[in-house]
Design brief:
Order of helices and strands: EHEHEHEHEHEHEHEHH
Number of domains: 1
Bound molecules: zinc ion
Radius of gyration: 17 Å
CATH class: Alpha Beta
CATH topology: TIM Barrel
CATH architecture: Alpha-Beta Barrel
Largest sheet: 8 strands, parallel
Number of helices: 9
CATH superfamily: Metal-dependent hydrolases
Strand order of the largest sheet: 1-2-3-4-5-6-7-8
Number of strands: 8
Helix content: 25-40%
């Protein structure tokens, strides 16, 4: 038996949000994984509809370091039907499906279908609570409604608010409800990120996670180009600067947090 305080190998980073199921990676996924493999020990691939969730599961079943998350994104709420829950339930029974997501609310791009988004999200929160799976949440300009909904499930749900963009007060509320906060390329940007960096500085160490959100939101100095999981250490380095602690501490804390939240083997 290895005591839980030591690790058989040096602990690696965990990318908790990386869309390797996106068509941008069709041509060179093996190379992308290879380039990340020295520093990144595990990657969670979130689906955004049934097809991409199935693909995430298939990718995860082929690669030791990949895990899948299964869900319907608020962008897709327009075609939500309750019958989709059966398909999601089936996908969530696959061996490497570790979470429900990416689910959530987006009032920035889809303010016209708030009710439909809430219906879609609520059904999937219910499923996550029933199956005891963590949730991966997308939230854009909708923090109050999302947090109000999550509060109903307080004590029954755990998860991550991915790509955190909210205020400090909203972060305090999210953490109180049992959520982790995901930080990505945004914290490396130079402009209009003061509020996010403030939360990144003050969030409790046991509630922070790292993510790339690849292929989106590449960190500086790759901003504007395709993001990749091998860029995760750049985000960790910036988070370490913001929090005034060594990057090793960020790596250990965020990887332990991710392993705990998603029930991953420590690697
Ligand atoms: Zn995403």
């Amino acid at each position: 038996m290895i005591p839980s305080t030591t690790f058989p190998k040096p602990i690696k980073f965990i990318d908790t949000h990386c869309h390797l199921n996106h068509p941008d990676f069709n041509a060179d996924i093996e190379k992308v994984l290879q380039q990340a493999s020295d520093e990144v020990g595990a990657i969670i691939v979130p689906g955004y509809d049934l097809e991409s969730s199935l693909l995430a599961c298939r990718l995860a079943e082929r690669s030791e370091t990949l895990y899948a998350s299964v869900g319907v994104h608020p962008d897709q709420a327009g075609c939500w039907e309750m019958s989709r829950l059966d398909s999601l339930r089936e996908l969530l029974s696959r061996p490497k499906a570790v979470a429900v997501g990416e689910i959530g609310l987006d009032y920035h791009w889809h303010p016209e279908m708030k009710d439909k988004q809430i219906e879609t999200l609520a059904a999937q929160l219910e499923l996550a609570a029933e199956l005891d799976k963590p949730v991966i949440l997308h939230c854009r300009d909708a923090h109050t409604d999302l947090l109000d909904l999550l509060e109903i499930y307080q004590g029954k749900l755990r998860g991550v608010m991915h790509c955190w963009t909210g205020s400090m007060n909203e972060a305090i509320r999210a953490i109180g409800i049992g959520m982790y906060l995901g930080f990505g390329g945004l914290i490396t940007f130079k402009k209009n990120v003061d509020a996010v960096q403030d939360v990144a500085m003050k969030a409790p160490t046991d509630r922070i996670l790292l993510e790339t959100d690849a292929p989106y939101l590449a960190p500086v100095p790759h901003r504007g180009r395709r993001n990749e999981p091998s860029y995760l250490p750049l985000i960790a380095k910036r988070l370490a600067e913001i929090r005034l602690i060594p990057v090793e501490e960020i790596r250990i804390a965020t990887s332990q947090n991710a392993a705990r939240l998603f029930n991953l083997p420590e690697s």
